[in-house]
Amino acid sequence: MAMGADRAIHVEIDPKSSSGKEKEGGAEGESQELEPLGVAKLLAKVVEEEGRNFVILGKQSIDDDSNQTGQMLAGLLGWGQATQASEIVFEEAQGKEGWMVKVTKEVDGGVETVRSPLPMVVTTDLRLNEPRYASLPNIMKAKKKKLEKKTLEDYGVDGRRRLKVLRVEEPPARKGGGKVEDVDGMIARLRELGAI
Asked: What is the distance between the alpha carbons of residues 58 and 71, in angstroms, rounded to a whole number?
């Protein structure tokens, strides 16, 4: 809140599970994490309760790097979406009431621009803005701002895990390449391998 927010909602999650029971398949004391679908359901409830028409999210989390929450949230709300935004511009809709959102994102071949009416969900890219840094006066002011603490149960969201990691393994080591003397040698080697 020291970086500019006027108020915040902190949703507390029981470290063992959202229902207070030990996490199924997990070791005792292992922390419960919400999956992207659980986070999207929670955010959908917050958006409905707050009466908002524009949601901006980061594109990925730092823990599981899923890049799913924004897309799931747009689907749950039935809203338009734009992902990996590097620029966002609000424009008055011509001939209609309301606002349009123009979102530019970087793609492999350049930039892509999409436009959609509100309501909308946008996920961001790191080039969207320069992060603000909290100054000491703003840190002190933040202590007086409203921080509402809630639980998943307050929103009626079930935080049970639906996915189970079966295993994580490294890819097989790559075989070393071979050198050829000239183009004819390369063609001969490719024929041996059945590539041509």
From this structure: 11
Give the pLDDT confidence score for residue 20 in this predicted structure.
Answer: 40
* Inter-helix orientation angle 69-77/36-50, to 10°: 50
Given strand 80-92, what is the order of strands in its sheet? Answer: 54-57, 120-124, 80-92, 99-107, 110-117
Task: Examine residue 36 and say whether the peptide bond preceding it is cis (omega within 30 degrees of 0).
Answer: no
Percent composition of the chain: helix, strand, coil (DSSP 3-state, to 5): 25, 25, 50
102 Cβ partners below 8 Å, 6+ apart?
Answer: 88, 89, 90, 91, 113, 114, 115
**Top mean-pLDDT range of 87-96, 111-120, 151-160:** 111-120
Write b or e for each residue in 96-122: b if 16 or more Cβ atoms lie within 10 A of its Cβ, otherwise e: eeeebbebbbeeeeeeeebebeebbbb
